[in-house]
């Protein structure tokens, strides 16, 4: 799995954001987010929890997410 985003990042308005700082932070965030489930999976295997059960947990976590909020949005 390659957690690295593309060289430019599309916004919801379909414009591209070429800001190096934003892209650097996005890459760091993607790398951190990719490591969390990998570490959790390794710990679960050590605790002898079934692999199939562990693979269902991320699906349930994403399903239970609340609505996204943008900074400055009126929600």
The low-confidence runs, each spanning 5 or more residues with pLDDT under 50, are none
Number of strands: 2
Average pLDDT over all residues: 75
Q: How much helix is in the residues? A: 40-55%
Order of SSEs: EEHH
What is the domain tally? 1
- Separation of the first and last Cα atoms: 34 Å
Report the major sheet: 2 strands, antiparallel
Q: How many H/I helices?
A: 2
Please compute the radius of gyration using only Cα atoms: 16 Å
Structure overview:
With 75 residues, the chain is mainly α. It has one domain. The protein contains 2 helices and 2 strands, in the order ββαα. The chain has helices at residues 20-46, 51-63; strands at 9-10, 16-17. A two-stranded antiparallel ribbon has the order 1-2. A hairpin with a 5-residue loop joins β1 (9-10) and β2 (16-17). α1 runs antiparallel to α2 (51-63). The protein starts with 8 loop residues before the first strand and ends in a 12-residue tail after the last helix.
Essential attributes:
75 residues; mainly alpha; two-stranded antiparallel sheet; 53% helix; elongated
What's the SSE blueprint?
Elements: E1 9-10, E2 16-17, H1 20-46, H2 51-63
């Amino acid at each position: 799995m390659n957690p690295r985003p593309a060289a430019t990042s599309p916004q919801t308005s379909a414009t591209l954001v070429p800001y190096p700082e934003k892209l650097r932070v996005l890459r760091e965030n993607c790398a951190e987010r990719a490591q969390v489930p990998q570490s959790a999976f390794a710990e679960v295997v050590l605790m002898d929890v079934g692999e199939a059960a562990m693979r269902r947990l991320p699906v349930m976590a994403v399903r239970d997410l609340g609505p996204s909020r943008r900074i400055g949005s009126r929600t």
